[in-house]
Specification:
The complex is a heterodimer. By secondary structure, chain A is mainly alpha-helical. Chain A is 63% helix and 2% strand. Chain A has one domain: Ferritin, core subunit, four-helix bundle (Ferritin, Up-down Bundle), CATH 1.20.1260.10. By secondary structure, chain B is mainly alpha-helical. Chain B is 70% helix and 0% strand. Classes of the chains: A mainly alpha, B mainly alpha.
Chain lengths: 263, 186
């Protein structure tokens, strides 16, 4: 098995576990600043995004698979949900690869980073992992996919819009899996709230290191309110997400127009 | 005499154990196999084996065992499962699993269909027929993988043949529980 992940990582091992195996077609980097971050309107922007997203979907597939293997005593319904998520993410990898290649790109064309897999590798509880992966990362992916679907539809790119539409439906199920487990565990053991809070804090610290230098400066999309409700978030949770998202986007806009501290 | 309800539950429970084991094996291989095409192959089939386990597990609950009852296979057969999981490289994982092990599992499912009463045990028969319907698709995906990654070289070209031989050597794969207790001998 040829593996390109043997190069030493500079990330803090307290926050980041080992990376997943990648073959030698891929260049694996640690942080957002080492990626090829193209400006909007660049002719390669879309191909780079498909390539990046293909690898992100692979990481989510790998996370679901790893949790399935590492938590054999979890409730069968949750394990079945993880197995389904694993297969869904595998299809997403294929979807992005198909688009990438159909539009002139190829595997290994751009660097990739495996932060989602590496962050979860340092979370030792299943509920903590699903709180991060399914309720945070996937929920953000749902917001992004909802915006991107509408944007692609408006641009007449129905192939792309159809893919986002299908993925949005899958993400709703994955988020619901996380929400159901969190609610179930909280009802059984209220101390689960502490476990989740600790996991989220750790993930937030790790995430900030990955995206330092501008990686979170995105203000295009807001919260997909209806889709999040459908995915099992409560109205109060969705309201809070909207408030936080609005504040974050306003801050990004302010910085971009020169009004912020980084002006 | 045909299979008793307890024997049927033990066979279906053993098939469930095997399905869960295969699901977990593929799941372990997803992050640890470097080639993207192999990850995707394994990742998609994780769900197939989970569904097989789930359907078999629903049936055990109808056969007077617990729902989602799993029975560990006979020791020799369990070693075959461990051998499959210990494959040293990508092609050994793929070939051992799909070419070495699955055909033997298919034979055992067909063996159950031949052994059980098709009418009395119809719900089990239908579940196994659906599983047998899935297996050629899995094999087809494996063939597509080989075409996609024809550049890969095996570390051990005889791996799949050895897995097949190990599996074939284990005639018995179910360890039946003792018969249920009654207050008086018949």
């Amino acid at each position: 098995m040829t593996d390109s992940t043997a190069a030493p990582s500079r990330l803090d091992p307290a926050l980041f576990g080992e990376g997943p195996a990648r073959d030698d077609r891929f260049t694996v980097v640690d942080v957002w600043a080492e990626m090829v971050n193209l400006p909007d309107g660049h002719r390669d922007k879309q191909r780079e995004f498909f390539h990046r997203q293909m690898n992100e979907e692979a990481c989510v597939m790998e996370n679901a698979a790893r949790s399935l293997a590492e938590f054999p005593d979890a409730d069968w319904r949750v394990r079945k949900g993880l197995a389904r998520q694993c297969a869904d993410e595998a299809r997403h990898v294929l979807s992005y690869r198909r688009l990438l290649e159909a539009r002139g790109g190829h595997l290994g064309q751009y660097p990739v980073m495996n932060f989602q897999y590496r962050i979860l590798g340092r979370i030792d509880s299943l509920v903590g992992r699903l709180a991060i992966q399914n309720r945070s990362f996937e929920a953000d992916g749902l917001d992004a996919a909802t915006y991107a679907r509408d944007e692609a539809r408006q641009a007449g790119d129905h192939e792309l819009a159809d893919m986002y539409d299908a993925q949005q439906a899958d993400e709703v199920c994955h988020i619901r899996l996380g929400n159901d487990l969190v609610r179930d565990q909280m009802a059984k053991a209220p101390r689960t709230a502490m476990v989740i809070a600790r996991a989220l804090t750790q993930a937030a610290r790790a995430f900030a290191r990955i995206f330092a230098g501008g990686g979170t400066e995105v203000e295009k999309y807001g919260i997909a309110v209806d889709a999040r409700l459908e995915a099992g978030f409560s109205p109060e949770e969705v309201e809070a997400a909207v408030r936080m998202s609005d504040a974050r986007r306003a801050a990004v806009r302010e910085r971009a127009t020169g009004g912020g501290v980084h002006g | 005499m045909g299979l008793t309800i307890r024997q049927k539950a033990d066979r279906i429970g053993t098939f469930r154990f095997i399905s869960v084991y295969l699901m977990e094996t593929l799941a372990r291989w997803v992050p640890t196999t470097p080639e993207l095409e192999a990850k995707v192959l394994f990742g998609r089939h994780v769900w197939d084996f989970a569904q097989h386990a789930d359907q078999l597990g629903r049936r055990t609950g109808e056969l007077r065992a617990a729902a989602q009852y799993s029975l560990r296979p006979a020791a020799g057969y369990f070693k075959v499962l461990e051998a499959v999981a210990s494959a040293p490289g990508t092609l050994e994982r793929v070939a051992g699993f799909y070419d070495g092990f699955l055909p033997d599992l298919e034979r055992r499912y067909r063996g159950y269909l031949a052994e059980t009463d098709q009418l009395n045990d119809e719900p089990s028969v239908r579940i196994i027929e659906r599983i047998l319907f899935d297996l050629p698709r899995l094999k087809g995906d494996r063939i597509a993988f080989a075409a996609q990654r024809a550049d890969l070289k095996p570390l051990d070209a005889g791996w799949a043949t050895r897995i097949a031989a190990l599996a074939a050597a284990e005639r018995e794969f179910v360890t039946d529980r003792s018969p249920a207790r009654t207050s008086a001998a018949v």
